[in-house]
Amino acid sequence: MELPPPALDRGRAEPLAVQLADGLRAAAAAGALRTGDRLPSTRALAATLRVSRTVTAAAYDQLLAEGWVEGRVGAGTFVRAVPRPGPDPAVSPAVGPEAPVAVDLRPGVPCLEVLDRAAWRRAWRAAADAEPDLLPRYAGLPGFRAAVGEHLLRHRGVVAPEVLATGGSTGAIAELARVLPRGARVAVEEPGYRRAVDALAAAGCTIVPVPVDADGLRVDALPTGLAAVYCTPAHQFPLGARMPADRRVALVERARAEGFLVVEDDYDGELRYDVAPLPLLAALGPDVVVHLGTASKILTPTLGVGWLVGPEPLRAALVAARERTGSRPGVAGQRVFAAFAAAGDLARHLRRLRRELSERRALTVAALPAARGDEAGAHVVLPVAGAREVQRRAAARGIGLDLLERHGSAEEGIVLGYAGPPRATLEEALGVVAALCA
Fold first, then answer.
1. Burial zone of 207 (CB within 10 Å; 0-12 exposed, 13-18 middle, 19+ buried)
2. Residues 163 and 140: beta-carbon distance below 8 Å
3. CA-to-CA distance for 183 and 229, rounded, in angstroms?
4. In angstroms, what is the C-alpha Rg of the chain?
5. Does 37 have pLDDT greater than 90?
6. What confidence category does residue 2 fall into, taking pLDDT thresholds of 50, 70 and 90?
7. Is the predicted pLDDT of residue 96 greater than 60, yes or no?
8. How many helices (H) and strands (E) does the chain have?
9. Mean pLDDT over all residues of the chain?
10. C-alpha 284: how far from its chain's center?
11. Helix (H, G, I), strand (E, B) or coil at 352
12. CA-CA distance, 5 to 193, in Å (whole number)?
């Protein structure tokens, strides 16, 4: 068939071969190419586009590798499959948590601008110096567990003699759910962290939503007959509340009286910059509380590690389940975290991070006075009518926003993270969001 020549722009940053491969995919998605159509030879297409044959050959090689086209000896190159067109951006639904954007103002993105790259490289080199393991360490590397224990004592005020390495908070929640009885009733915050809820539901737990207020999870609204309660007491996600001491005590007392576990997700507990954080639930009730932490928010998801502190019978059950299935958290991330902490770089990083996030929060609130949430962590809640439309229009400007409704809230609004972009980019993006909200 006659192929409309894709437009190539030598002024763009993308190589011509990449532009050509993109153009051919777009032509197929638009219907200009169909399955079974024969493409021009690389030589003929190069002549048509007035480019080197190297460009057309590289583009075809990429499409061959992706499986969109196939070569037939002596016959040429043919379209094997046609990409399905994506949704019209003008009517696109809410931007998902993994959608690529130029400026990411969604919660959960770490602040890499303050990460000391020299210290980061040193930690990786130190991790590489360690001898390979002969056998799997199902509970985690001793060096990592010791580093986390010191971190928790120094920054969270809890003595944790036994730490279990995890693959992060969500992975730990999924592991916990699998050692609970099938169909176990687990109370969750509403609104709350959707990935935790999905992990619990995927493991067969029965989800029991419980409302939150200005002080976090409402302990008085918990029903009876629960196996566990999942909550974020240090900085409720997404509303940003801090659970006061009396409510924490009440939750621990109910857990003891009724025999359920409290899963305390301390996803950003180190990142408080107004007052010292309240004692962890794990410090109040180590016999009934499972404390979860993660390196993703304070450093980077690259490490893929977190930690769990909980009652010994539960830890033993988790390790036994790992031994049966052969699953265990990644070792490389544990080694890097331990090396980063041992050199004192983790403590220095946290000091820089708290200063930076405090200043970023001030910028955010100045640009968006309606924003609310505790002076902690790296996100605020912005109540706004027509939040979906604001999100859509922001996406058209390359700015990623998250909707409050996605986390189970009946209120319209945006959950806005301010940690990810460089400071100058953040200020500019906040101005755009303010104008869209207005």
1. middle
2. yes
3. 14
4. 26
5. no
6. low
7. no
8. 14, 16
9. 90
10. 29
11. helix
12. 48
156 vs 196, more confident: 196
Q: Phi first, then psi: what are they for 382, rounded to 5°?
A: -115, 100
Domains of the chain: 16-79 (1.10.10.10), 89-109+347-437 (3.90.1150.10), 117-343 (3.40.640.10)
For 247, other C-beta atoms within 10 Å of its C-beta total 18
Distance CA 85, CA 25 (A): 10
Max distance between CA atoms of the chain, in angstroms, equals 80
Closest CA to 375 of 362, 366, 388: 362
Helix (H) or strand (E) segment spanning residue 372: none
Lateral strand order in the sheet of 164-166: 164-166, 306-309, 289-294, 261-265, 228-231, 185-190, 206-213, 216-217
**Do residues 106 and 415 touch, judged by C-beta distance below 8 A?**
yes
pLDDT (average), residues 208-219: 96
CA distances in angstroms from 244 to 154, 213, 262, 281, 404, listed in the order given: 21, 12, 16, 11, 23
Q: Kindly write down the DSSP assignment for every residue of 63-113, as one continuous string.
A: HHHHTSEEEETTTEEEE---PPPPPPGGG--SPPTT---SEE-STT---GG
In sequence order, what are the residues at sequence separation of 6 or more whose Cβ sits closer than 8 angstroms to the Cβ of residue 232?
Answer: 189, 192, 193, 216, 264, 265, 266, 267
Residue 72 pairs with which residues in a beta bridge?
76
Instruction: For residue 100, name the pLDDT band (cuts at 50, 70, 90).
Output: low
What letter would DSSP give residue 133? P
pLDDT at 231 over 80: yes
Residue of 345 and 273 predicted with greater confidence: 345
Residues with Cβ within 8 Å of 246's Cβ and at least 6 positions away in sequence, in order, are none
Residue 337: closest CA among 167, 173, 171, 172: 167
At 87 the pLDDT is 44
In this predicted structure, the answer to whether residue 85 has a pLDDT above a threshold of 60 is no
| Residues forming beta bridges with residue 265, ordered by sequence position | 292
Q: Which amino acid is at 75?
A: A
- Least confident segment among 20-29, 126-135, 159-168, 232-241: 20-29
- Dihedral of the CA atoms 129, 130, 131, 136 (nearest 10)? -150
The pLDDT of residue 309 is: 96
Q: Find all residues with CB under 8 Å of 207, minimum gap 6, and list them.
A: 186, 188, 197, 200, 201
| 278-289-191 Cα angle (round to 5) | 70
